[in-house]
Automatic annotation (TrEMBL):
This is Hydrolase or acyltransferase, alpha/beta fold family. The keyword Lipoprotein does not apply. PANTHER family: AB HYDROLASE SUPERFAMILY PROTEIN C4A8.06C (PTHR48081), ALPHA_BETA HYDROLASE FOLD-3 DOMAIN-CONTAINING PROTEIN-RELATED (PTHR48081:SF8). Keywords: Acyltransferase, Hydrolase, Transferase. PROSITE patterns: LIPASE_GDXG_HIS, LIPASE_GDXG_SER. The keyword Ribonucleoprotein does not apply. It comes from Geotalea daltonii (strain DSM 22248 / JCM 15807 / FRC-32). GO terms for molecular function: acyltransferase activity; hydrolase activity. Gene3D superfamilies: alpha/beta hydrolase. It holds the Pfam family Abhydrolase_3.
Amino acid sequence: MPSLRSRIFLTVLRNRHLLKFKLKKETAREWETSLPAVRASAAKTSKMFGKLPKGIRSAPVAIGELSAEWIEPIQADNDSVILYFHGGGYILGSIEAHRGIVAKFVSGSGARALLFGYRLAPEHRFPAALDDAVAAYRWLLSVGISPAKIVFAGDSAGAGLCLATLLAVRDRGMPLPAAAVALSPWTDMKHTGESLQTNASKCLAPTGSWVVCANHYLGGHDPGDPYASPLYGDLRDLPPLLIYVGGDETLRDDSVRYARKAKDAGVEVTLRVGEGMCHCYPACAPLFPEATRAMEEICSFIKRHQGRLD
């Protein structure tokens, strides 16, 4: 059973519309009609998550025209790197909004992270985000970082992009990273998972959000393209994967079905489905114990696959 602390926290989030004196849960309608306003609101909120904890610093880095930032321990003593893919449905999200989240991975694992800002839809539709992700990984390799010391990690759409980038890297003949961590990955833009309906009333995501985001991102492109929806890809020869997903979120089946298919393809996969948990719940650490335990396992997984865990 979920902890009391997590139940209180998630109950507040599920009913946050009431705090705004609205009787109905938010829908994704504004994401279709007023995207600039939605982005402005998200940017305002992101300022609460941009502060770095003590002992962690950030430094901007230019990768061609791609903006990026190192998030690293002040006393970094190893050459291990996390390449982080931020979420936001391919239409939102930024380095600033995810700086604090990525710092949790850095603090727990001791590795530095490269957090990059890929181009967003609908201004830049598929495959712009994928091209930017491959460019970020190629840059890491070009500056001499061993793929054996790199772990991919991402949340939500960023986690889906992370898994799609593994396919693109493999198919382009580039060396694969040591492992990958995916929090609530969006793997199916055809929206065929049963949990999209069964968890709709419990999920924190606005109603219809995944359909709206897919329309913005794909712009009519085939939603079954594996580089957009990695669930439909050939998953052979991928590195070890750790996948976390909330039991009460609409994207639950995107993770469950992807993990099953990857295992059938011979990939080493660990899937954690958090009972009663929400979308990307490990990122909420240390607010409730389930998130804290998840982040601890994630960081141990990263260290182990980078050869730094005794």
